[in-house]
Amino acid sequence: MGILDIVSELCDCDLLLHSRNKLKKRKQLRTVEIKVKMDCEGCERRVKKLVERMRGVTKVEVERKLNKLTVIGYVDPNKVLERVRHRTGKKAELWPYVPYDVVPHPYAPGAYDRKAPPGYVRNVVDDPVYSSLARASPWEVKYTTAFSDENPDACVVM
After folding, report:
1. Residue 94: strand pairing partners
2. For the chain, how many helices (H) and strands (E)?
3. Please, how many CA atoms are within 13 Å of residue 91, restricted to the half-sphere of its CB?
4. Tens digits of residue pLDDT in 122-144
5. Where in the numbering of this chain does the HMA domain appear (predicted)?
6. Burial letters for 110-121: b for 16+ Cβ neighbours within 10 Å, e otherwise?
7. DSSP state, 107?
8. Do 44 and 64 contact (CB within 8 A), yes or no?
9. Which of 49, 76, 122, 146 is most buried, most CB within 10 Å of its CB?
């Protein structure tokens, strides 16, 4: 009961510390969405094969009409993005759009984007460049509520 117990406890503690470090280093399952310009089926196939070969990728979906690449797996989004940029030579960026319903003011100058697919607007919450532009000013709010059907004191033109 003396030295052997102390030595065994020390060995167990070291094993526990190492196993905790290994658990922290594991990557989480992520969904990475990337905007890549794809003109034809060949480009689509090339991008899909390139990403499927990466370690940790479980599923790859390509939507050519939207120029969207969706990768599901245990991957780092920046590594996927860099690989697509480097290997294909195409301009690629993380998917900058969100559904129309998510943004509070979808037609504000920062949020509305003509190049966005139908039903989507620019993600102004995550993009600091456009976030200040996508808010309605106090005057705009007053104008829209003055002519609202829900406001009983609203201006009525008959």
Report:
1. 34
2. 5, 6
3. 1
4. 766 655 455 454 455 665 555 55
5. 29-93
6. bbbbeebeeebb
7. T
8. yes
9. 122
Q: Report the DSSP pairing between strands 30-36 and 120-122.
A: unpaired
Residue 75 near residue 30, CB atoms below 8 Å: yes
Q: What is the CATH T-level fold of the domain 30-95, as seen in this structure?
A: Alpha-Beta Plaits (3.30.70)
Q: What is the pLDDT of residues 90-106, one digit of tens each?
A: 899 888 887 877 776 66
Domain segments of the chain: what residues? 30-95, 100-150
Of 44 and 5, the one with more pLDDT = 44
Handedness of CA 49, 54, 58, 63 (dihedral sign): negative
Range list of H helices, the chain: 3-25, 41-52, 77-88, 128-131, 138-146
Q: Residue 60 pairs with which residues in a beta bridge?
A: 71
